[in-house]
Amino acid sequence: MKILVCNAGSTSLKFKLFNMPGDQVLAEGRVERVGSTDSAIFHFRRPDGFRIDREGLSIPTYTEGIQMFLECLLDPEYGSLKDLKELERVGFKTVLSKNYYGIHELTEEVLRGMEEYLVVAPAHNIPYLEAIRQFQKLTPDAMLIGAFETAFHQTIPRERKIYGIPWEWYEKYGIERMGYHGASHSYVSETLTELYGSTEKTISCHLGGSGSLCAIDDGKSVDTSFGLSLQAGLIQSSRSGDMDPFLIPFLLKEGMELDEVLEGLTKRGGLLGISGVSGDLRDITAAAEQGNERAQLAINVYCNGIVRYIGAYYAELGGLDHLVFTGGIGEHGTNVRRIVCDQLRHMGILLDPEKNVSCTQNAVISTADSPVKIHVIPANEELGVARKTYAYKKEGIS
Questions:
Q1: Nearest CA among 231, 213, 344, 209 for reference residue 283
Q2: How many helices and strands in the chain, by DSSP H and E?
């Protein structure tokens, strides 16, 4: 079965075409700077090394980006499909839909659920809705499947999902901790199961521009740092993360407008807000190395938040067998891994400094005598979505 996976961001599109079962990648593509009329970037790759790289393009909407990738797939010289009818399913790494938390065919009812939660996840649901609508037009014979990021977290015990709010808010509005990055955390769980036969007690740290931690017990999510929205938990690139909710009325009383407050919490906060340099940890690290105290403070706050969640999840799990770093920062942030693990030595998390610096894909970077195995596992969210899309039955998977 030919399955295309689409990962839509606020200004980007990522694609991978799989032949399932077997996890065989036939082609992949990436569009950057969607919305630009003169500086968009397009990449197309095949496993045999064939590649196309174009810059300075006009890709004003997702339609043009999707069409460009599909045209490459159908090209008689280097394409991977003879006809779009070969494409049986398209899987999406969707985020949130009201009352739909598993793997679902993207019917009009499910899409309405995504629209109802635009206020909770605007930066994610808006691009996905646009991309899904385009695939409905361009691939009418394919079944469209949403692998919602909330799916993996449905096993979290109720006492860890409920907020201390009036019960009628939960009943009427469904307000509870949802959890996201499910594709990444579930892929970590699947990878550890393939390597060791089970995940045992695991803490997965997906660290990137957006970051979250997940406690996994015997392959199931039992806690996560995100909340109802992706605003909660760790500080992010430009999101504040956990904060006192009374900060909002305080600032409103001081004369700020609500839109200004929300922009500060979502677009000017996080690492960017503390450092004053950037929301990119690479830029912040470079500034810290040059003596910028706020940049160093941002790094320390970020790492301390990771340590705090690991400590809490260690207690909830009743011990720990595997600590996993994934995502852009998790995979490449040598300094972050060192700072975090050095603060956790008393918990049997013993990092090997040389392995930490020289690690490659799917590496174990703990010392030989460390009671807890420390892993670096590259994120492969598209493969996780492809597997779930292939396994989907008409009645769905929850």
A1: 209
A2: 14, 14
CA angle, residues 132, 133, 134, in degrees to nearest 5:
90
φ/ψ (deg, to 5) at 147: -95, 90
Residue with tokens 């307000």: 175
Tell me the C-alpha distance between 395 and 398, whole Å.
9
The tokens for 39 are 């500086």
> pLDDT higher for 361 or 383?
383
Cα gap 295→292, rounded to integer Å: 5
Q: Comparing C-alpha atoms, which of 80, 87, 133 is closest to residue 110?
A: 133
Residue 394 has pLDDT above 70, yes or no: no
Residues making up the chain, counted from first to last: 398
Query: Is 395 a residue whose pLDDT tops 70?
Result: no
Tell me, letter by letter, the H, E, C secondary structure of 334-391: HHHHHHHHHCCHHHCCCECHHHHHHCCCCEECECCCCCCEEEECCCCHHHHHHHHHHH
- Per-residue pLDDT of 46-87, as tens digits, reads 999 999 999 999 999 888 999 999 999 999 999 999 999 999
CA distances 173 to 98, 121, 179, 243, Å, are 10, 15, 17, 22
